Amino acid sequence: MKKILSLLLLVTCCSFSYAHTLDTNVAYTGSSDFNRLEMQATAALALHTFVGLQAKWVDEKAFKKDIYSVALPIDFDFNLIQFNLRPFYYFKNKSDNPLFQDSLAYGMNSSMSIFLQSDEVNDLYTKAVLGVSFARQKGTLFTKEDLAENRYYSQLAYSVGFQQNYYRAFGFEVSASAFGYPDGVSNATGFRGIMDQQELAASTQNFDIVHNLTKYIVGGRFTRMWADNNSSLYVGYQYSEHHAAQDEHSALFGNTFWVANRVQVDMAYNHVFDVHNHHRRDIFYIRLGTSF
After folding, report:
1. Which of 181, 228, 290, 292 ranks highest by number of CB atoms within 10 Å?
2. Contact, 226 vs 232, CB < 8 A?
3. What is each CA distance from 239 to 32, 226, 233, 257, in whole angstroms?
């Protein structure tokens, strides 16, 4: 997987020089538990083909060494139907604790979007999203017998979502993702791995980093848009249930706006807490985007 992704990254970098347009984004997410920096460039290589290159750095208290990952988003847009592929790779994170082995992860997030309604006259749009994702991690699995087993661990996720846009002024989104574990999860009490479980979901309303083995995620978002000013306000909510961990709520509020002709800002506040109102986290997010 690493060799295949390295080859794709090389091809993508070479292709950027022939791109018709180039979109770039830089995002920072911070809380008391972690700092995360993401950078992405997306190029329109052909009429219906978009290829991106994403790099991510995470400084997380749960790991002594920083976490690095790369991804290669590939989008095919055929107007009424869209296909999205996102292979990703987490580089090896060495463990200083002899009880835990080094961690790494790789996988693929894929989805298909279908426009059920596309009324350009009245600005009414309805889109359905179906997704299937896969990941394989190297880490330490903890079991009910208080055993720690160093091993590879596979995961699957299935997602469905609907998006509705009214008059370029109001947007509604609902989504759900269910997770499966081919290697078994009934005896597991936790897994020490570096991958964010939300990598596998088609859509989330949570900026936190989730390592708990997830059962399912459900969420929604409402967006109020002002198309003439290229700005919007949005509120989102997400509920997630996990194996051997407390279920969690996530609420977020955000604002997008333009500060220059080609520079867009997305700022958000995210509050996460479990069902017993413990382990509360305040998370702040900001993204700058521009096009060339």
Report:
1. 181
2. yes
3. 21, 28, 21, 28
Question: Pick from 127, 67, 89: which is nearest to 3 by CA?
Answer: 89
174-184 residue pLDDT tens:
999 999 999 88
Residue 288: what residue type? Answer: L
Numbers of helices and strands, H then E, in the chain: 1, 16
The two beta strands, 103-119 and 170-180, are: unpaired
Q: How does the average pLDDT of the chain come out, rounded?
A: 89
**How far is residue 43's CA from residue 24's CA, in Å, rounded to a whole number?**
9
Q: Identify the CA nearest to 96 among candidates 65, 74, 126, 122.
A: 65
Is the confidence at residue 111, as pLDDT, over 70? yes
Q: Identity (one letter) of the amino acid at 43?
A: A
Report how far residue 43's alpha carbon sits from residue 75's, in angstroms, rounded to the nearest whole number.
10
16, 38, 42: which is closest to 29 by C-alpha? 38
Strands 103-119 and 74-77: unpaired
Q: Which domain holds residue 173?
A: 2-291
Distance of CA 81 to the CA centre of its chain: 21
Report the CATH number at residue 24: 2.40.160.60
